[in-house]
Amino acid sequence: MKTIVVCVTSDLATDNRILRHCELMHDMGFKVLVLGRQLPSSPAMPVLPYASYRVKLPFTQGPLFYLSFHIWLFFFLLFKRADILWANDLDTVLPCFLVSKLRRQFFTVDAHELFTEVPELQKAPIKRSIWGIIEKRLAVKADLFITVNHSLARYFKDKYGINPSVIRNVPKRIPLTAAHTKEELGIPESDLVVVIQGSGINKGRGLDETIEAMSLLSGVHLLIIGGGNAIEDAKQKVSTLGIGAKVHFIARVPYQEMMRYTQLASIGLAYDADPCLNFHFALPNKIFDYFHAGIAVISGPQPEISGLVSIYECGYIMKQITPESIQWAIAFYQKHPGLLATHQRNAKKAAETEHWDHEKAALAALLNPLIG
């Protein structure tokens, strides 16, 4: 039985992509250990059939966090028996690469995003340069390089001449629990509900513009499900605009509970306001959650998201992300309930194709040669 150690800087509890991958590895016969970190706000871990460990560090962000995490991870991996080291995103690559070379282990990188192109690094050239060196000198030298969509795969191929494998972040096809009701949240039955969800609702992802749009709408309620660095500012803005009665904040919850809220909505919002390359090429898992919930989608012009909306004819694609364009798109659906119902049906049909079974088979094909 070969051992895979999967490394990530998230707190794991709602990191569904990582948990799905680890479950498949376990089912295929690998001994799996997944490593993450424990934050003060971290939910309890779900019951897993494989081992997990979350480290508590004195720092939670910034250079001191990365320094302490890399030192801890390097020495943990150095003295841990393993056959395969699996680095998720650029921020776990350095210790995984070094230990894999010292101990001659198989080294895998799973790039969930363009880490060097996130908004936080655009005005920090020194930090961006350091991460760029790690990407160029270490990450792309992996024995197996995986990413989450074809746009990112083309980016890495054009820049580094590698051929990444694509495993998209799509949910399992499972029976969903009945949706919450509008009455439970104090929402009038006749009002329209829209939702934006995710574990990384960060600045630049359109939340600020969405809240401004809500101040221009009547008969509409917004559910914000999840966490991220944009949440606290969003709560303040909602209070300043005096729209607290129609904007509902829901903290991170397990997947089934999140989907109960998502199914309550009629429309899912999937767009990013910041034009950085990381957001431009993103394919967030929430769009697949919207499909499985059977709700229409309002997206931006990002190619991966808008491409799916166009293929399945399940929503409206905005050319730009502004409060006025968001307000117009939501109001359009208010005025055309028949079209909204059609797009909801088409989203549900999309879920029949867009589910984990297909991606699972592709990942299993990559893992099979590593078993022997």
Summarize it.
By secondary structure, this protein is α/β, with parallel strands linked by helices.
What is the secondary structure topology, with strand pairs?
Blueprint lengths: L2 E5 L8 H12 L3 E7 L13 E5 L6 H17 L5 E5 L4 H11 L2 E6 L7 H4 L2 H13 L6 E4 L2 H11 L4 E2 L25 E7 L8 H8 L5 E7 L4 H11 L5 E4 L4 H10 L2 E4 L6 H4 L5 H8 L2 E4 L3 H10 L2 E3 L5 H13 L1 H15 L4 H16 L1
Parallel strand pairs: 1-2, 1-4, 2-3, 4-5, 5-6, 6-7, 8-9, 8-11, 9-10, 11-12, 12-13
Helix pairs in contact: 2-3, 7-8, 7-13, 11-14
Q: Tell me, what is the CATH class of the largest domain?
A: Alpha Beta
How are the strands of the largest sheet arranged? 3-2-1-4-5-6-7
Total E-strand runs:
13
Using the alpha-carbon principal axes, give the shape. Answer: globular
Number of domains: 2
Regions with little confidence, pLDDT below 50 for 5+ residues: none
Overall pLDDT = 96
Largest sheet: 7 strands, parallel
What is the CA-CA span between the terminal residues?
A: 9 Å
Helix content: 40-55%
